[in-house]
Structure formats: C-alpha cells, structure tokens
Write the structure tokens for this entry.
Amino acid sequence: MKNLVKTFVVLFLFISQIGLAQISTDVLIGLSSNSAVARGVDNSLVPTIRSKTYPSVLVNVNYALDKHFFVSSGIELTRSGFDILEGTSFDLLGLNVPIGAKVSYSEKIYSIPLHLGFNVPTSFGSVYAKSGVNYAIGGGGNYRLIADSIFDYVVVDDPIPYGDRVNKTELTASLGLGLAWNYGLGQLKIEGNYQHGLTDKLIQENLDLAMRTKKIGVRAGYSVRF
C-alpha cells in the first residue's frame, strides 16, 4: 500500500511542475453517511452495522491538463464511525459484547485524496466526474460499549487502540460526480462522493472478521481560479 501511495504522490508532484494551463482551489463543506462492510465470516454471523453521519471540510487543488482532463489533491478533515449491534453476544476490540448491547465507533480522519477527473464545459459552467484513491490517517477517537435498554447506559468509553486490531491508516477507492456554475472569479460547486475501503480498518482474528469502511456524501462550496 505504501508503494502505491508513493507512486501517486510522485505522479501528482510531477504533473504539478509541468506548467499547466489552469489551477483552481476548492473549499467544500459537506455531510457524509459512514458505515462498514464485514468480510471473512458467513453473512448470518455478521452483526448489524448502523451508519453515522458526520460533517466534513475539504480543501482541494485542481490542475487542468487540457480542456477536459484534470488531476486534483488536497486534504479533507472529517470523522468516520458506525454502530455495531447484535442480538447475540460477541467479542469485538477486546470487549465481550452481551446481548442487547452495541459498540459505537467514532474516529477523527485526515484524508488525502488523489483523483483524475474529466470535465465537460457547459453554458452555465461544467459537469465533471473524478475517480482515484484517498489515503486516510486516523487522528484518534473512541469506542463505547453501550447497554441498549430504555435508557442507553455507557459501560465502556475508551480511546481507539491503534495496532493489531485497528489500523491507523486506510486506503479507499473514491468516485465523485459534480456540477459547477460560473460565479464571480470562480465557480459554485456541488458534488456527490462515494468511497469504499481497499484495506481493512478493523480486524478481529478470533472471529476471522475484518471490516472495511464505506461512505457516501454530498458537499458544496466555492472554487477560485488562478
């Protein structure tokens, strides 16, 4: 994974030095619904996973290669998380989760996207699509064991234990579709984005269980051309 990330970074830096026709910077604010996909166990044994919604802020730089193609990268600040529920007892992150309880997972994320995009000019601005990868770095968070009854009762509230069970870094595939309207010195933008983990985030070896994150979101903001 490290070699793949290094390859994309070197490619981006090379392209940024070859005298491109146009550069623009986006500042986009949005919301994303975060969840996870379980791997390695029978579907009948997979606990129920409930998504969580978090805000995000993305600062992105776009380099136009020609009239249609562009590359982009930047940094996104957001959170990732989900609830894990089960009607039977199970073990996760070292917790013995009893019947009727749930694990609530929440983590701060610093994400570095690297995308190749295709832009179609229109009378009002442009329509664009982009795809690539995101390199996500965990910035800490917590997981809570909650007794789910008439009133939720927090039994455990501990920091995320990065290591064998939780990977601090993650690589995700990303696909985005957007619209841009010419306005002032730049463009108003709105875009949808889908991400799916390419590497495992949570690992539970005794259950032969691994989880990869996924999210779908929408964001909007302004792009300034230089």
Notes: Confidence is low (pLDDT under 50) at residues 88-92. Residues 2-16 form the longest helix (15 residues).
